[in-house]
Design brief:
By secondary structure, the chain is an alpha+beta fold. It has one domain. It contains 3 helices and 3 strands, in the order E-H-H-E-E-H. It has a 3-stranded antiparallel sheet. A hairpin with a 2-residue loop joins strand 2 and strand 3. The longest helix is centred in the C-terminal third of the chain and has 11 residues.
């Protein structure tokens, strides 16, 4: 029998995700619409998991050497 371990995750609104990313909620919605940030549709609303926020940050993180 295969067992699947599910890690609990928190779903965030556009406002909460924006706070975590340091951007406006409008920017979060634009990322959703562009397909750059995955979302979960719940009723008429959308949420993003904290795991997806972490993935987005990791993929866009860059090292900028001091000048």
């Amino acid at each position: 029998m295969n067992s699947v371990t599910t890690i609990p995750t928190r779903l965030l609104s556009a406002v909460q995700a924006g706070e975590r990313l340091g951007v406006n909620e409008t920017t979060v919605r634009e990322l959703w619409n562009a397909g750059e940030l995955k979302c979960v549709h719940i009723g008429r609303g959308r949420k993003v998991s904290d795991a997806e926020i972490s993935r987005y940050i990791a993929e866009h993180e860059q090292f900028a050497p001091a000048t």
